[in-house]
Amino acid sequence: MTTSPHRSIEVPAGHGKAVRLSAGQAVRVVNTHGTQVVDCWAWNAYNLNEYMCMETTRVWNQRLNPVMGDTFVTNERHPVLTVVEDTTPGVHDTFMAACDRKRYQLLGVRGYHRNCCDNMFEGMFELGVTPPRPNLASFNIFMNIRVQPDGITLHTLPTVTQPGDYITLRAEMDCFVAFSACPQDIVKIQGQGDNTPKPVDIVVLSDEIWPIEGTRTWVPDAG
Ligand SMILES: [Zn+2]
């Protein structure tokens, strides 16, 4: 069986998928309908206790949220993914915890509601891989969380992406990357309109080379 250099996978609305990338490969996340928030996690392919970490990434880049060219690092402070393309207005989030069962209980849901944490496991289980624990600190692609003028208050808003907008993440190490097309249908985060979760597409890119180095860790100026 030949492997296409462009392997496209649909993430059904409200579900999860995962891929394994070798260093240098990339994955493009396409907001097919333009309205969908996508939660993202990554792990060192050889050590699932080393995971993409939002806290260390904010230190590394000295930014609240990543922009084009920024690198995500792990809890071991090793580069894992770099943003090499972004056709969106550049609005993504690293602050909001991934939704889980308890979040929906707190929102008043009785019974089971699909959620990003379970979707993360769903996607990884399909690859035969079991992450050691849920990680609430996801990279929330296309999610629109605005810091208010007081500098400390957050405002949750719908996505600002257009249909077909995408972001591409290059692997800096061999890694697993999981995605959840967020099932959130109570808090209004899913674009304009009826807040209905929609499918997205992920595309594994194997042969592209981007003239982007990624970021090195920030260190304060001496003196
Ligand atoms: Zn979610």
Automatic annotation (TrEMBL):
The biological process GO terms on file are: methylation
Q: Which residues form a coiled coil?
A: none
Q: Where is the DUF1989 domain?
A: 10-175
| Alphabetical list of InterPro entries matching this protein | DUF1989 (IPR018959)
**Where does the chain cross the membrane?**
none
Q: Which Pfam families match?
A: DUF1989
Keywords, comma-separated and alphabetical = Methyltransferase, Transferase
Any one GO molecular function term: methyltransferase activity
- What name goes with this protein? Aminomethyltransferase
Species? Caballeronia mineralivorans PML1(12)
Q: What is the lineage of its organism?
A: Bacteria, Pseudomonadati, Pseudomonadota, Betaproteobacteria, Burkholderiales
